[in-house]
Amino acid sequence: MVQADADAPLLLQFDNNRLLMQLLGEHDRHLALIEDRVGVACVARGNQIVITGGAAERQIAALVLRDLYRQLQAKRPVGRAEVEGAIRMALGTIAGERVYSMTDERVQVQLSRRRIAPRSPVQAHYIEALRRDDLVFGLGPAGTGKTYLAVAVAASMLAEGRVDRLVLSRPAVEAGERLGFLPGDMREKVDPYLRPLYDALHDMFTGDQIARKLESGEIEVAPLAFMRGRTLRNAYVILDEAQNCTPMQMKMFLTRLGENSRMAVTGDPTQIDLPPGQKSGLNEAVDILHGVEGISMLRFTDADVVRHPMVGRIVRAYEARAAHEKR
Questions:
Q1: Cα 100 from chain centroid (whole Å)
Q2: What does the DSSP 8-state code read for residue 167?
Q3: 78-89 tens-digit pLDDT
Q4: Distance between CA 74 and CA 67 in Å, rounded?
Q5: What kind and span of H or E run contains 249?
Q6: Measured between alpha carbons, how far is 32 from 61 in angstroms, rounded to an integer?
């Protein structure tokens, strides 16, 4: 891969024509996406891609193409989601973030079923923090991978024998509903609240593995109320939807941390379903624990949304309305 002088178009050369075709995408749709997001023009000529545009934009596009090509060399598929992720990672380097790529082994999570890579610089920092620190807060809107990545890191540590158990919890409060009004026994009442955690687990383990680990106690999925009075040792503990905890519940949960255990707390401080006037334990904990040694707080924004692109636009629209109403 070579470059001409600083003012000339950037020329990238690729050795494997078969991988290059996958890199371009059907009808060059991957190139078109890079052009649209980065603000460059890309033309494929033989085994080369010619990039024209501003100097900084050319470098970003080159980072994206090289990153995606390395993924293909590693026999990993490249689709729209991977292209979007590589663009976010490259754009982060221009914004002053530490340089990462989606193929950076430092921030990848290897599981038996799949390899999980960050798709934004904040996700990369988050994975590092989840591996390094005893308590990590992941704060931000839906679709940014807060809970999914926490479960992935926890599952990898369980598989490596670094912890003995994976404990996943959520407060059973959603949009004003209460358990007493739901049909069925206690498990049938709480399972709908915990379903997103089961969904994440099914990406990490087979159904049979999950069933065995649930039966043996290696994996536990339980409502937050069930954490009271416990000390969780040799465990990776995740609290999801933490914005719906009361201050008392949050303090109770955080003080469950036992020897050789770690915690991840995830939530969106703007989406609180507690009764009117009830303070969120997540917001209080963020204020109280800011700057405490051994605690990391990662804040995600709409730029980190990795679901359908429409989700990011929806989040931005709601944030704009909220900002307007505060004026």
A1: 15
A2: E
A3: 999 899 999 988
A4: 11
A5: helix 247-254
A6: 11
